[in-house]
Amino acid sequence: MQYFVPSDDPPPLRILAEAFPPGAAVPLSVARAAIDVYSRPGDVILDPFCNSVNVIQAALEAGRRVIAASFNPINLLAIEATLWPIDARSALTHLADTHKGAERLRDHVLAQYAARCPRCGKAALAQAFIWDRDQNTPLEKRVQCEACGELSGPIDEADVTRARRFEPRGLSFWLLHARVIDRQSEEADRVSEILDAYTPRNLAAIGDIVLKIDGLSEADRSALRPALLATLEACTSLHSPDDIPRPAGSLRAPPRFVERNVWLELENLCRTPALVHSGAPAPLMTLLASDQPAVSLLAEPARELARLLPPKSIQLLLSHPPLPRPTFWSLSTAWTAWLWNKSAAGGLLPLLSHKRTNWDWQWRAIASALSALQATLKDDARSVMAFAGDESILESVSLAAAAAHHVIEHAVCDPHDGLRVTWRPTHAPPAIAPEPSGLLSTGIHTLARAAARRILRDRAEPTDQLTLHAGLFAALGQSDLLAQAARLPEGEQLPLTFVRESIKAAFTSADSPLTALDPHTWWLKDPPSLQTPLADRVELALLELLQSRVEWPSDDLLREVYRRFPDHLTPDRWLLAMCLHSYSDEPEAGRVRLRAEDSAQARAIDSVRARHDLETVGKRLGFEVMADQPEAERRRVTWRQSGEIVHAFVITATAEIDLLLHQAAGVLVLPGGRATLLQHKIGRDVRLKKVMDAWQLLKLSSLRHIAEDTDLSLNTFALAFGLEPPIEQPATQIRLW
Ligand SMILES: [Zn+2]
């Protein structure tokens, strides 16, 4: 994907929405664009690390076949529950009617949450308790009282006694533990930690339900699984009462946590009316046998996928790279074992090891997945990955792809939105002679510098580090340097650190042509004479497009702008938004048109009038006035006294900054509609901060004001400068008029 496609905001998954944040998935807009560019109807798209419905939805819309896979069955359950929700009410009744001893299961489980109403004292049912983690005691309860309705209040002695009746690490604990892993296993302690993320009472309730589920029909079990999964997530002790998001990666309860009533949670989830969709995933064989649009879901790791898929069957691999998520993987392991069985969770057990949580392990895992899938890709296939603007992901994914002999084609980046990287997988890996790490480091160093210099020259403006690094990894990924780094012998430095350090040295050593203007922005130490800054080129391109049609669908307009600025020229979304806001209005949602006052004709009239006003005012204030030829593109007017220039005015209709960078001082006369855009451009280009001390701004509206003032003095004239000039403030106007 040579052109940037901004993220959209697709709806979240129906269950476990928090575990699958939209920012950690391929955006729907990007999936649509990648499928459009790199495949044709009937082709097979593969998402091997699937964590959202976006790739599936985009593929089906476009008449493609799609295989969505994940090593984690929980991902696929959440996706299936979103695409094909099932009505679980009758299955829930079957579960409720099973027996625990002499009692119905429902009655038995609910009895564990019995509590008195804090207002009237009658017997009631607790919906939740709020616990103090360190004192290990409940503090508050929320109950459902037949007389008073739902209310919260302090706990009483009986609540504490009831909570303590459930032994920590009691029978239910070990029953659920044994369902995940053998007690002698190396990771048995890690599984204990996972189970400790539930209160003993909730573990008892979960244990009862899990045992009874096994006796239900397969249809009932399938129907209940999504709601049960959501219940297992909601009933951990990891939720705080105010639902403040926890730091990721911890199985430790927050200082105050909520213990939810497991049965009520399950009932609520089953009651939520599900719009029952028709359809179901297709078996892989059915999908492969026809070229009709279809989707297969496979809970398999990449090496298994590689065995299941025919060689050269995939046209496009499209995915979000898997991120290290130790807590979610740990919980997923337990949930998978409880919802299905021990063997279903077998593939997840290796992920319980603490070693499997860093980027150094992760890039190797991605590399081996991509290598395994190599044979399934067609000769002209592409791999596209979209992910958030994060250096660690960029470095790891680039290294992984290089190790799997993927040659990078494009890396486009908007630091505020994310990255989209495209590779061409090569089938015959080049024979790479390992180079000594010293030579390799020099190679990376040289290439990184040359690439950075080229990118900065092309953009002709100080550039965000992430945009620069995206361009840099694109250059490195076209050479064999990354592939060589990936093969560095296990020794002093890990490949990821090696690449990172080599690039850092290229940027920061004393002889580097680059300089950091702030911690995230790089520029050239000796900038040569450059073309117009990117910010100006983007503004003019957008203006030209707006002038070319009466009205645009805003998405089409933005797509057209991005097409004019491919690869490392990708502009950031804020700049685009500010340009669009400055020049257009919205006759209806999703459509834009050039503002009437910005038509070429209106601006020409403004310009003539401004020149005339400057001449009039200048003469009135006793200056000698000189104006350039009226046909000049930008009109210049100077006020002089005894031959010396007092004010040099430049009349412009745009917020171009090139002028400010190349002329030492002056007064910029511009439409008020450009004010915010100009401010934004000054804010995003560090070079302008100093320059602006020597410049003054005069809005057309302020110039009108003073031109109409026949008693104008130099003092009053000074009040007209600025983007929010005193002359336009209500208090000043009263004094003036
Ligand atoms: Zn009550």
List the helices and strands and how they pair.
Elements (H helix, E strand, L loop, with lengths): L27 H11 L5 E4 L6 H8 L3 E5 L3 H11 L5 H8 L2 E2 L2 E2 H7 L2 E3 L6 E10 L4 E9 L3 E6 L2 H8 L6 H10 L7 H8 L4 H14 L4 H17 L21 E5 L1 H10 L12 H6 L4 E5 L3 H7 L5 E6 L6 H14 L19 H15 L3 E11 L3 H13 L2 E9 L3 E8 L11 H23 L3 E2 H14 L2 H6 L8 H14 L5 E5 L2 E4 L9 H15 L3 E2 H11 L8 H11 E5 L2 E4 L5 H21 L3 E4 L7 E7 L2 E8 L6 H5 L3 E5 L4 H10 L1 H6 L3 E5 H8 L6 H5 L11 H7 L1
Parallel strand pairs: 1-2, 1-11, 2-10, 11-12, 23-24, 24-25
Antiparallel strand pairs: 3-4, 5-6, 6-7, 6-9, 7-8, 12-14, 13-14, 15-17, 16-17, 18-20, 19-20, 21-22, 22-23
Helix pairs in contact: 1-2, 4-10, 7-8, 7-9, 7-14, 10-11, 13-15, 15-16, 16-18, 17-18, 17-20, 21-22, 21-23, 23-26, 24-28
Bound molecules: zinc ion.
User: Are any ligands bound, and if so which?
Assistant: zinc ion
Helix content, binned percent: 40-55%
- Major β-sheet strand ordering: 10-2-1-11-12-14-13
* Quantity of strands, as a count: 25
Biggest sheet statistics? 7 strands, mixed
Based on helices, strands and strand pairing, what is the structural class? alpha+beta
Rg, nearest Å: 32 Å
| Residue share in β-strands | 15-25%
Which regions contain 5 or more consecutive residues with pLDDT less than 50?
A: none
Q: What is the mean pLDDT?
A: 91
Termini separation (Å)?
A: 59 Å
General shape: globular
Put simply, the count of helices is 30
Notes on the protein architecture:
By secondary structure, the protein is of the alpha+beta class. Among the domains are: about 60 residues; about 130 residues, no CATH class. It contains 30 helices and 25 strands. It has a seven-stranded mixed β-sheet, with helices on both faces. Strands 5, 6, 7, 8 and 9 form a five-stranded antiparallel β-sheet that branches. Strand 6 and strand 7 form a beta hairpin. The chain binds zinc ion (ZN). Zinc ion binds next to loops.
